[in-house]
Amino acid sequence: QAQLVESGGGLVQAGGSLRLSCQASGRAINNYIVMAWFRQAPGKEREFVTAITWTGNTNPADSVKGRFLISRDTAKNTVYLQMNLLKPEDTGVYYCAAGPRPSSAWGEYLYWGQGTQVTVSS
Fold first, then answer.
1. Of 9, 38, 64, 100, which has the fewest Cβ atoms less than 10 A away?
2. Which residues on neighbouring strands pair with residue 76, listed in sequence order?
3. pLDDT tens-digit profile, the chain (122 residues)
4. What angle do CA 63, 51, 25 make, to 5 degrees?
5. SS3 sequence, 47-81?
6. How does DSSP classify residue 29?
7. What are the φ/ψ torsions at residue 108 (nearest 5 degrees)?
8. CA distances from 44 to 38, 93, 97 (A)
9. Taking a C-beta distance cutoff of 8 angstroms, is the pair 16, 26 a contact?
């Protein structure tokens, strides 16, 4: 079994920073072809944020490029999302996901965490 658990969400002011964590169990994170972060705001579709392949290549969405950084700590079996210069439009539930191939489509991912709420105020 594979399980992903997100943490680190909260309420921050615009321009602030937050670091999300995704701890995996049942499988080492680098055994996945790709680990990704998605987010979903109320009334909106689930949106791709960024991803990292087992080789370390990343693919951030244009909306977060230059502000968000995905990274991993294999010793802790954890993937991180460092979010800087946060904007109100970054508000949403953030999900960690794992899949068999690089993709920005949420339907391509097989394993999902429960999500963690991020709220950015003006």
1. 100
2. none
3. 679 999 999 999 999 999 999 999 887 777 788 999 999 999 999 999 999 998 899 999 999 999 999 999 988 989 999 999 999 999 999 999 999 999 999 999 999 999 999 999 99
4. 135
5. EEEEEEECCCCECCCCCCCCCEEEEEECCCCEEEE
6. G
7. -85, -10
8. 12, 11, 18
9. no
